Amino acid sequence: MVDVKALAEIVDEAARRGVAVAQLTDMYPALSIETAYAVQAEAIGRRLQRGERRIGVKMGLTSRAKMQQVGVDEVIWGVLTDAMILDDGESLDLDGMIHPRVEPEIAFLLKKPFTGEASAQWAADAVEAVAPALEIIDSRYQDFKFRVADVVADNSSAAGVVIGPWRKPDLDIANLGMILSFDGRPVQVGSSAAILGHPLRALLAAARLTERYGEGLKAGDIVLAGASTAAEPLRPGVNVQLQVQNLGLMGFNTKERK
Ligand code: 0L1
Ligand code: MG
To answer: What is the CATH number of the domain that holds 132?
Structure first.
């Protein structure tokens, strides 16, 4: 019998203290996806008890590049809280993180709730605004190695999010060029088409999966669609920028080591 509370404490404490742990599936090789989402929900409950507020969800592994990078080929999701938000242009302290990476994404802001039953048109109509976004991920597992149940339990590696300027969703986002740069040099180049063929498909997947394993999508939620390229390891003292065609430029800095 899996002790969901005990596993939630392991991943939550690892994130809080910035200390890597062994994969949960070492202890429970048969850990199911359903139980892993229960562990995720319990760990998020611990964050909410500490005063954090749920602001939306992140989709993970929505592109081939991401699936290949971590050797898991299943779309997953996690919860975003207000404590994970970093303002556009702000500085990020890497101290307290284990092996942080950054990846280029598209963010949606929802104006109405919708469910797994929704059509693509309904999903598009539910979007209030769209923005370029950078997700900071930090697996709590040693060597950034995990199986799908491990990463789900670990809130799909969510660690931080920077959102660029919001704009009305009155443009075609099917195939936008996305360039992630470190200190002005491109390190990852991709297209929004790499996100499940169209970022709106990630939104539909979010509705389906969050309804199945969680609370569904609500008005006011931010939804990160998932990365269009592999993630890039972060290091101290770097300027990180994302340029998304027609959506604009945004970014953050990492602080120098103390
Ligand atoms: O946002 C993501 O695609 C991350 C999902 C988990 C896998 C990873 O840590 O790269
Ligand atoms: Mg991501």
So the answer is: 3.90.850.10
Considering only CA atoms, which residue is closest to atom 10 of ligand 1?
70
Per-residue pLDDT tens digits for 129-160: 999 999 999 999 999 999 999 999 999 999 99
Q: Residue 122: which pLDDT band, with cuts at 50, 70 and 90? A: confident
Q: What's the number of domains the chain is made of?
A: 1
Q: Is the pLDDT of residue 258 over 80?
A: no
Is 137 close to ligand 1, i.e. is its CB under 6 Å away? Answer: yes
pLDDT attached to residue 203: 96
Whether ligand 1 lies within 6 angstroms of the CB of 66 is answered as yes
Residue 192, ligand 1, Cβ within 6 A: no
Mean pLDDT of all residues in 205-214: 93
Domain range holding 219? Answer: 4-254
Evaluate: CB of 190 within 6 angstroms of ligand 1: no
By alpha-carbon position, which residue is closest to atom 5 of ligand 1? 60
Angle between helix axes 4-17 and 33-49 (nearest 10 degrees) is: 60
